[in-house]
Amino acid sequence: MAANQERRHERRISAINLVNIEIDSGDAGAEELVGRTLDLSQDGMRVELSHALPLGSPVRVRFALVDRLLDVEAVVRSSADLAGEMVAVGLEFSHIDDDTRAALIAYLKAHP
After folding, report:
1. Which residues are CB-neighbours of 6 under 8 A, at least 6 positions away?
2. pTM of the complete model
3. Which residues in 56-95 are b (16+ Cβ under 10 Å) and which e?
4. Sign of CA dihedral 75, 76, 78, 84
5. Which residue in 53, 65, 41 sits closest to 89, CA to CA?
6. What residues contact residue 27 under an 8 Å CB cut-off, 6+ apart?
7. Other C-beta atoms within 10 Å of 13: how many?
8. Using one digit for the tens of pLDDT, what is the confidence trace for 22-33?
9. Side-chain-facing half-sphere of 110: CA atoms under 13 Å
């Protein structure tokens, strides 16, 4: 695949929304991180966090869209350093219920 070839199937929009990510840290229990979305699509999101997450890790994500909190399950697909000590983490949704997907699609359509 060419380096600049787009792998995403759905359009992403730039969006800044608060996000809470929970990752199971094994014996240490669940680790919770707070960050913000950088972009958002029907299939996933890119979030800004204080540190990287292991690729392939399942996470639970809660994020705010306008006046509603959405809960989804996702898998960590990418990680890239940002300015300062922040990291951009790419998440692919692995489970999203129909009501949540409908709310997400409506949000995406309203923000071209």
Report:
1. none
2. 0.83
3. eeebbbebebeeeebebebbbeeeeeeeeeebbbbbebee
4. positive
5. 53
6. none
7. 15
8. 998 766 678 899
9. 8
